[in-house]
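Prompt: May I have another protein with tokenized structure?
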Amino acid sequence: PPPRSAIDSSAYAKPRAPARQRGFSLIELLVGMLVSMICMLAIMAAFAVYEGKKRTTTTGNDAQQNGSYALYTLERQLRTAGSGITQGNNWGLWGCPITAYTDSTQVLPAASLPSPFTSSGWPLTTRLVPVLIAAGGGNVPDVIGIVAGNPAQQVFKVTVSSTPSAASVVVGNSFGILSGDYLAGTLSDSTCALAQIPTASPTAQVSGTTIALSTANSPTKGLQTATNLFDFGPAPTFTLFGIDTSTNSLVSYDLLQRKVNGNAATVTPIADGIVQIKALYGIQTSGSNSLTWVQPTGNYSISTLTASTSAANAAMTKIKAIRIAIVAQGRLAERSSDYSAASNKLVLFPDLDTTLQYTITTNTQYHYKVYDTTIPVRNALIATYY
């Protein structure tokens, strides 16, 4: 055998592991981490762009839905404004200050109004006018008040034929007057009163020409001095609409304070995301076939129109339409990179003279939608003939 020193020591060396089992070197790990970070940054950048587009689309859709629903609600109410009182224009009903009771408590004239109507300038004494606007100055939203009835059949005046009592009234004709209806009566002192016919035992409430009155929802003296009655139906509208700026929502308030499902009347939210409402009167002067738009200020301010003057009564009859602009705001704020160059002003009624326009200050961090429409006060259009 060969000498020991001549033996090849490599024959006894440990065999090397295949390359796939040797793991990664430090340089390879660092390169891999760098590539991963670059990919992650690219993915996050793409996701940020996607999220921004999604936010813009979502908030725009929210503003569109809220704004269109708010406008629909107001338009539906305004199109019925004046129903039930149109035929009383020449009988002392229009502009008449009204007294009303609900659950034995006097609710009109109101002792106070809840927020946000407290500081709106809306008078505590409600007058029977289809629609009135209390203007808010600057960025303060307007308040819109609507009065309407929903009689089933009787739409003309009913003459009181004999001296009534506190619990009933005798009329010349009770056709179409049903139990549960509200009756407005013109009184001898140039005011009006609202009384309700009881709903219990309905066949006994309207018997011939004698109409029973609810002791809880009638003035304490009933309609003893009433000359004419007007049927307002079972669910008349005496409603204020405004903006609650603390929650950015369109809200309403029932001036008659009727309970809903047994619960006391409160300010009711209608649509959220509504930050502004402005309105104009469309008036028609004698001998004119066109409308002239005016702001609810000056001769058409709420204080002037509700004054007990012949000028106020004449001005009320000229109101034939309402133009409303509603501003809806998106829910989600935009990133600073998306709104830095945006304008913070909105001009309402831009097609009209500058004296009729409103410039609204907005927050550039949010998206806004403006809804503008003209609504004829259709029941006021036929008042001339009654």
Observations:
- Residues 60-149+236-385 form one domain.
